[in-house]
Amino acid sequence: TGKAVAFPDMPVIIRITCTVSSRFAHTVMSSKALNKENSSQEIFFEVELPKMAFITNFSMEIDGQVYVGEVKEKESAKEQYEKAVSSGKTAGLVKASERKMEKFSVSVNIAAQSSVSFILIYEELLQRTVIFWQDVCPCVFTM
Fold first, then answer.
1. pLDDT at 131 over 70
2. Between the chain's N and C termini, which has fewer beta carbons within 10 Å?
3. Would you give the DSSP letter of residue 81?
4. 105: number of Cβ within 10 Å
5. Closest CA to 143 of 68, 2, 35, 69
6. What sequence ranges are listed for the domain VIT (predicted)?
7. CATH architecture for residues 12-142
8. In sequence order, which residues have a C-beta less than 8 Å from that of residue 59 and are 6 or more positions away?
9. 81 φ, ψ (degrees, to nearest 5)
C-alpha cells in the first residue's frame, strides 16, 4: 500500500508497480513533483521498506539529466546538499534508519519553475504466510 499527501501549490504524481514471481517482489516507485513557484521549494519523500528488502536503484531526473544515487559520508553529503539548497538549486539528500522497517528518506529542494522525477527500485524475497505473501510500501510526501 502507498499513501501520499498532495500539496495545493506543488503537484505530485506517484506510481508504484510491483511484480511478484516465485516469491520474489520487484517494486518500482516513481514520482514527479513540479514547483510552479518563483522560489525554490523543499519536499520530503519517505518510504518504509521491509527490513529484508534491498534497494537496487535510486535516481532523480532534473531538467532532463538523470542522476544516479551514490553513497557518501554522512556529513559530506549533508554539506553538499545544504550548499545547493542555499543557492536555490535542485538537489536531493537520501537517509536511511533502521527499525523493524527500513526508513528511506529523501529531502529534495526543487528550483523555481522546475520539476524533479524520482525512481526507487527495491527487491525482496517474500515470506510465505499460509497461502499469501506480504509486501508493504507506504510512502509520504511532506513540504
1. no
2. N
3. H
4. 15
5. 35
6. 1-124
7. Sandwich (2.60)
8. 66, 67, 68, 69, 118, 119
9. -65, -50
